[in-house]
# Entry
Amino acid sequence: MSRLKDRAAIVTGAASGIGRASAELFASEGARVLAVDRPGAEMTFEHPGIVAFEQDVSADAAPDAIVGAALAAFGKLDILFNNAGVGANALAANMTDEQWDWVQSINIRAVFRLSRAAIPHIVASPAGRIISTASVMAQGTDYGLAAYCAAKAGVLGLTRTLALELGKHGVTANAVLPGAIRTGMTQASFANPGNAEVWAKKSVLRRLGEPIDVARVALFLASDDAGFVTGQAIAADGGMTLRI
# Structure
């Protein structure tokens, strides 16, 4: 299939997990993809449509560097998938400023700054798309997730505003909300069979999610199929939030 034929995309956090699955899926659907992750991350892709680019998304120069690399490689930009993210676990009373700032710098500040840099090029596309990875925790919470939940809730607020401001250009902006997914961020926790079983049972489908489950939602949002969908937060959680 070629749902993204001849489109140029940026995918951040592309070395593993949701980002890698999305970069590979986008490319298989005809897109040329700039796969972005931090320096030193393992980014070897077999698909010729994927170009690896090492960049810390939280760095001051990152937005111009990433957008510039996409334009140099593809000559245009149609799709931005803000997927890079980090987690931290500390009770609010014990959280340091450094922990808080680190999570915010990647999970929301970088999303805003990269989106801002991409907008002039996205609005020039006949099918401009901005997609961001939030989390079911953007609408819920748990112990120790003050920084994470605040940042991911911020992603939803930013997404809605981008949808409002860019709609006149035909650009859509949406967020995907993963639930319990097997990624690099959750690998250590889910390596414990007990933890994996608990979280699998939270899903009404009785399993953990895989990166491809979220990538397929991102593909839908990037494609013409979602041309009339904007400002939305779509959960890919196996029905976990039905129990909240």
